[in-house]
Amino acid sequence: MAAAVNHDLLVGAATDKIHSALYKYVLNLKHNQLAMLAKFVVFYAKHQKTVKRSILALIFLGVIERIHKVVRLMTAERKSVATVSDNGKGRTRRGAQLDKQFFDNMKQLIAIAIPGLFSKEAGMLVTHTVLLVFRTFLSVVVASLDGEIVSSLVRLQGREFLTGIAKWMTMAVPATLTNSLLNYLQTMLAIRFRQNLTEHVHKMYLANNTYYAVGNLDDRIKNADQLVAVDITKFSNSLAEIYSNLAKPTVDAFVYNIQLAKNLGIESLFGIMVIVQMSSGMLRLMAPPFGQLAAQEQRLEGEFYSTHSRLIEHAEEIALYRGHETEKLTITKKYLRLVRHINRICRLNVFYNMSEDFIVKYFWGAAGLSACAIPVFADRMPGAKRTVADTVGSVAVAAGSSIGAHTKNFVTNRRLLLSASDAFARLMYSYKEIVELAGYAERVTGLLTVFSEVSSGQYIKARVGESAEKSQNPDDTEANIVNQRGETVESVDDVEFIDVPIVSPNGDVLVRKLNFHVKPGRHLLIVGPNGCGKSSMFRILGGLWPVYGGTLRKPSMSQIFYIPQRPYLPIGTLRDQVIYPDCAADMAAKSTTDADLLAILKIVQLNHIVEREGGWDSVKAWRDALSGGDKQRIAMARLFYHRPRYAIMDECTSAVSMDIEKIMYTHATSLGITLLTVSHRQSLWMYHNYILQYDGQGGYLFSKLDPERRIALMEEKQQIEQELAAIGDMEARLQEMEAEAASY
Ligand SMILES: Nc1ncnc2c1ncn2[C@@H]1O[C@H](COP(=O)(O)OP(=O)(O)OP(=O)(O)O)[C@@H](O)[C@H]1O
């Protein structure tokens, strides 16, 4: 009797199918347990509306909490210090994480990648978003159509089945078009992002000698080429991809969940959401530091790539030294470091991917399927039919308990649930992608920071034999020199060093205070032992190294032309080699013709190469096509084409014969070019009026050069030295003879 009462009470109280599903279980319970449960169910039945509202409030609070968490992340300072360092010596970088730094980096990069609200990129993003929403609505329609088709199949309704198939095929047209448009837009977005970022980086890199300073005066970036060519591309692709990967599942999850809440009831959906939240939190805890690992992988890729570049660049020297085994060892070491790191990532991925797949594909799938099955089982339970019809609002009731209706609802809900779970899964997977994006973002913003600091003269470089603390010591004169700043003043036509120290990028003070003055037409010869700072003085004059003190007066850089020992030959035609850094348009603007260029080549006795190399428009790997002497003569021809006020000649005639050298120097002086020459050749003395002699100990002597008197003195000195040597020999022989005589 009591069981019958409880049975009626329970069935009557069950206001939706979920509670009917408990029916069987309940029948097997003991009396006191049954009574308690009955009280609970009655309570629930009475307050069902309040329960639903509470669940909605909980979901709302959950969303607010999520937003709050993102805001906290955006404002929280980074706490942990990670281990990624660009090199052993430089500033230690922090690992990529989702924190304020990440959001700041993204803000900076997105402002470059998407230049404005009305830019092309913003338009593409809006179109992309509209298409994403449209695709999700199409998916909801397809899910319902799927249910209808399977339902008509189960009910053996041929006409409805065929109509369903026709509708299905019609849906395929907008669906496939939307998909391919989405792919196209994603690729185009990645290309646009890359273009904007690359243009921005090029503007910084190729201005103010930044490309020189980054490699020579600063330690932070080892391989700018790889960062510009590879990392920006990876960041752009990742950014375009992440937008799709985040926006689509977010829209999907939202739309599908609303639909599911209607079909299954908010309680089932809430249950599923709790499971999803808990398991995804667990997965996040288990996730390896993907951002840090991606950033480190890029750095190792860069090192490996640059060892190969070095091999190509120095192939001839290495081949002549037979240095391939040593080079192989270096390259293999770099490669093995990279491979070891990739292997580590793969190993970490095995366990993480397994857990991710298990939870996302199987665990969530099972939870979803169970939620879909509850209404079906509930409706088939004994006694359920009597009460369910008036309680379950939307789905199964209208069709009664027919198998067709169940099938339709089951298939539709299952499809929606699978899509919703797929959306959550993609959100989960995109966590890993976001962290990787953080890694790329950190490298690209790091690159921008270094470029901007270096172009404004802020360098970070390890100093020789000097710690950071020592440089703060006011008594340390060398450190003081490095910490000072001098000034550069543009003069009309003089070159003057007033108390300017010569300091290498490592902080080596080569000369404490250099003083000399050169006027136009007064040629200067610079001599001294290797490594004493001869070329360094030119680097300061050329604005490559900072002026650490005193005053440097010099004409504008367009008036000073530099000719190194190994001249640079650009990519381009034979004509481009002679007129560099001008281009053909500049040459035309100066009204210079090919005939003029030929006349210039004739002066350096190189006119025959025009025919030999296939004419002015011939394009070759000039570095290999021309001999060392040819290259130096091309460089001299370049000087005659540009006719600057000053020419810096850094051992630039070492590979040509003395008669060609004479022609070059005579012609240069006849053009009114003032020469600043570094050379060990005595034959060049006659073309200079002043001499700057370094002693290699930090001292120097600047004086007038009278070549004839100097040569005469040098010859006299040589003669005396020879005579002294002969006297020394005779003395030694005399001693030998004395010793020999004593023995007899
Ligand atoms: N980019 C650089 N970074 C660090 N140190 C440098 C750099 N370039 C040159 N140095 C150092 O500056 C010092 C002077 O070099 P510099 O090229 O001026 O010598 P030099 O007198 O021209 O010698 P040589 O006659 O052999 O050409 C050397 O000790 C060299 O190692």
Quick take:
The chain is of the alpha/beta class. The chain is built from 27 helices and 10 strands.
Q: What does this protein look like?
A:
The chain is 66% helix and 7% strand. It has helices at 2-13, 17-20, 23-27, 31-46, 48-75, 100-113, 120-154, 158-205, 210-216, 224-264, 266-286, 290-313, 315-321, 324-380, 384-388, 403-455, 468-471, 477-483, 534-541, 574-579, 584-589, 594-603, 608-612, 622-625, 628-642, 658-670, 707-743; strands at residues 487-490, 495-503, 509-518, 524-527, 551-554, 560-563, 646-650, 674-678, 690-694, 700-704. It has a 6-stranded mixed beta sheet, with helices on both faces. It has a 4-stranded mixed beta sheet with strand order 1-5-2-3. It has 27 helices and 10 strands. The chain is α/β, with parallel strands linked by helices and 744 residues long. It folds into 4 domains: 2-19 and 30-46, no CATH class; 97-455, ABC transporter transmembrane region fold (Up-down Bundle), CATH 1.20.1560.10; 479-705, P-loop containing nucleotide triphosphate hydrolases (Rossmann fold), CATH 3.40.50.300; 714-744. Bound molecules: adenosine-5'-triphosphate. Adenosine-5'-triphosphate (ATP) is lined by residues 216, 504-506, 510, 528, 530-536.
Major sheet summary line: 6 strands, mixed
Instruction: Specify the structural class.
Output: alpha/beta
- Count of DSSP strands: 10
Q: What form results from the Cα inertia axes?
A: elongated
How many domain regions?
A: 4
CATH fold node name of the largest domain: ABC transporter transmembrane region fold
User: Which ions and ligands are bound to the chains?
Assistant: adenosine-5'-triphosphate
Question: Considering the protein shown, what is the CATH homologous superfamily of the largest domain?
Answer: ABC transporter type 1, transmembrane domain
The CATH architecture of the largest domain can be given as: Up-down Bundle
Strand order of the main beta sheet, please? 6-7-8-4-9-10
CATH class of the largest domain: Mainly Alpha
Number of helices: 27
Q: Helix fraction?
A: 55-70%
Mean pLDDT: 80
Organism: Coemansia aciculifera
GO biological process, one term: fatty acid beta-oxidation
InterPro entries: AAA+_ATPase (IPR003593), ABC1_TM_dom (IPR011527), ABC1_TM_sf (IPR036640), ABC_transporter-like_ATP-bd (IPR003439), ABC_transporter-like_CS (IPR017871), ABC_transporter_sub-D (IPR050835), P-loop_NTPase (IPR027417)
Domain ABC transmembrane type-1: 129-360
